[in-house]
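Following up on my earlier message about zinc ion. Here are the inputs again, as you asked, copied directly from the submission form:
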Amino acid sequence: MAVAALWFCPAAVGAAPSDPHYAGELTLSVDLSDPGQKIFRVHESIPAKAGAVTLYYPKWIPGEHSPSGTISQVAGLVISTDSGQRVEWRRDLDDMFTLHLAVPPATASLQLEFQLLSPGPGGAFGQSVSATDDIEDLEWNQVLFYPAGYAVRNITVRPSARLPPGWGYASALAGNPANAGVVQFDAVSLEQLVDSPLITGRYFARIDLAPGADVPVHLDLVADHASDLQVSDAQLQQHRNLVAQAQALFGAHHYQHYDFLFTLSQNTGHFGLEHSQSSDDRLFARFFTDPDTYLAGGGLLPHEYVHSWNGKFRRPAGLATPNYNVPMRGELLWVYEGLTTYLGDVLTARSGIWSAEQYREQLAAIAAGMDHRPGRAWRNLQDTADEAQVLYYVPGDWSSWRRGVDYYDEGELIWLDVDMTIRELSSGHRSLDDFVRAFFGTDNGSFIVKPYDFDDIVRTLNAVQPNDWAGYLRNRLDTHATPAPLEGIARSGWALSYDDQPSATFKARGKVRKYLDLRYSLGLIVSTEADSYGKLLDVLWNSPAFTAGLAPGMTVLAINGRKFDPERVDEQLTAAKSATVPIDILAQNFDSFTTVRLDYHGGPMYPHLTRLAAGADRLAGVIAPKAP
Ligand SMILES: [Zn+2]
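Thanks, got it. Here's what our run produced:
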């Protein structure tokens, strides 16, 4: 995206922010004492002098890789001088996140009053539900404006938050405990503030994941129900293992302390957002108390933790922007997200959150998804990263043809193959762990961003194991060939295969997310959610369902004359194996009803990894815990 030229204050926007510190200190007070109405009330003070001033609302959100700032949720904005004189503002005509003001003489500061109308259901990341009667998750970038023309590391802000009475809270910010309901945090750079979200909740627990360590790591939990805070001894040990295994893998850390800010709720959005010294992790209420939910979501915290190294400390140059209103470039997200997906899953297994079998089931599910991506014929993997700015917000329909943020899953397959190739070429003496330690394991304790480019990746790989890594990586990024890059799985001693029994992981994903995944048989994903029961969430391009004329958004009412029942579909597919007639599906499309015929006789199909007869089981070596 090009930066818009401005009519009002061209020097402030679009030009690289200057390096000097912004004079004075911003103060920011957020009132979170009204969770039920989901209104976050803000008072902000910005030192300012007379003359033309441009203010930004954060637009490009770190970790979201998109211009996804919540400007449309800001209301009630009134700006005054410190002497109480109202200052009119005008929004930039090209950029909705930019305000222009003429500050009157004898002004020392601007006083901003506004509300963030915290989002309702349906959005992604920070645009999803962040407040319930029992929980509030605050992303500071949603509740502030800042002066244009400066790098955010050079703007100082002193934040505070008023919490509902008696609620617990956690953040990577340092500060004083609540006094009359207000937590006063120490002054930090604007960069550090936005990198340090706050969670607060009626039901709260704080668990030490590194007892006795010099560098503390905590698991901070908020939930809608006290019973959701019950962490078993085994789960506690697994997450302590995660901290130890990450340290053993990277050999250095990039935080002074680390907090997993974990929201357990059916009502909030479900995602993870990485930060240097914390992560904003939001999953289903029964994560710790339902084994399927734990299995389906167990990889989230390891993924976000890896980002402290890969994404925060080391960051692609195109994503290491000086402030939140300079566009981000996602071209290296196959490293930022793809390598994190690989390392996150490996650490999930090394820490024992997943068993070896569960790790392989996860890998099989990812490999099968990428192996059914006919869209690679028109869009290579590189283009999915290049278009990341919008791909997080596209619908999930036609995903096999459209391709979405495939650099996560396909990135995992590529980095697995890089790992296997290093192990093969070095006769087992070296592995991707050596690259990880060389690339991320420097500057212990520092969380000053260290940007990188493609050549830095290639250079470090070559230092670990000489190879034509540039050619190797470009070939996988730029290809339109099918199938998916499954060479790493083969080199690991396994093969992607399909049979009629879904794995425990495959079943758990469908149960928790409420869908039936028939992509590898009929070519469908069907909702099992009560309010969209039978709705086609996706149809695989060129599958039997596609050929028969089905499309996402239609609703499956009956299969072979019987009411749609997710529990019976496998029986029906098995019966159709020996039938000579097609499978009939009665579907509704808006106010039309239609019966389509699927000429499919392959039976149920679910992905697995099966052991190759020849070759060592290198996956076992990958997920073996490392000695501390
Ligand atoms: Zn990620």
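One observation from looking it over: Residues 274, 303, 307, 337, 340 surround zinc ion (CB under 6 Å). Hope that helps, and feel free to reply on this thread.
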